[in-house]
């Protein structure tokens, strides 16, 4: 599962009683897992097991990890590889054939730092797909790497360079050869023969010469999405940008099939197009959506309403009618706590309690909302214990309605009131 950390200043709820101090409750971020349906430019369409569809937007801040297996044809010049082998210190040639290696994006973790070091039993072995780990390492370079993720990079942590315990083939050392953990960049790959360039080190020359075994296991541990395709398994952690759209902060992808550069019969190369959710930036929309394609929505959730035809009632008139239908008389508001909602770290807005009107009745009488979003969060229950909520925020012109998990309208905000 993905790590459980909160994004400070994204969304916050505050429940305020008339005579009590305001209590701030952090909105939880959105976790989505499923199968990739389509891939686009910085966009991924995800279908969950419940057949819900989400459009996931990637940015330079998105932490990406892609794991799985690969075919030998992926070992082209420019990729970084890691393997453990007995290497002649004078010639740089590997003794025997390499039967397991990992293609990786360089990062500041022990198993992904380019270099030459002694094997460390505490690190994952090459040729084995990495687990879907909770924390994503920060990227420091490599082909296709999106660059550093947020803030200064910590110093690289080198794996302990502990010499093999004994001499001889069983101990990993001979007169001219030792067993090393090699991490470097492929500069030549022909008929299973690799030349790997390694950084300056005290053990070997700059070039290591290796031959791949016929049935070598090749794993991948990447930090870019340019090799994923429809059908791969994905886990996303992010924040709701609009109904059915998520700004991704972390993306973990498990390849469904071994990675290969060969084009399968019937499959055309290149990325698959994906429809973007409207023309608005990846921020919570305020007010009606601009013209453009509507974003995908969850089944049963309110989609963005189409443009009104000529002669239709103005949105402000509709908002006034809805307000009249859900507004409580002043006498009934006594003792009912208001709700304060802050979006994207903005100033809190106060929402007033409403009559318990069913949301479906509102839509039947007044049509679909102009826009909507899902609010994921925690609130204190009647027993004082925190409970998870999944609410909806609907917008009708200048009127905003908050609908609870039962589908009942509970609060409103009228911008012109």
What does this structure look like?
This protein has 417 residues and is mainly β. Among the domains are: 11-27 and 296-414, no CATH class; 67-219, no CATH class. The chain has 2 helices and 21 strands. It has helices at 315-326, 359-366; strands at residues 11-16, 23-26, 30-40, 43-47, 53-57, 63-69, 80-88, 94-95, 98-104, 115-117, 177-190, 193-197, 207-222, 233-242, 245-254, 338-343, 349-358, 371-380, 386-396, 399-403, 408-414. The strands form 2 sheets. Strands 3, 4, 5, 6, 7, 8, 9, 10, 11, 12, 13, 14 and 15 form a 13-stranded mixed sheet that branches. It has an 8-stranded antiparallel sheet with strand order 2-1-16-17-21-20-19-18. It is elongated. The two termini are 44 Å apart. The relative contact order is 0.19. The model is unreliable at 1-26, 132-162, 164-171, 265-270 and 279-313 (pLDDT under 50).
Keywords, separated by commas or semicolons:
417 residues; mainly beta; eight-stranded antiparallel beta sheet; disordered N terminus
Record field, number of beta strands: 21
What distance separates the N and C termini?
Answer: 44 Å
Number of helices: 2
Global geometry: elongated
Helix and strand sequence: EEEEEEEEEEEEEEEHEEHEEEE
Strand content: 35-45%
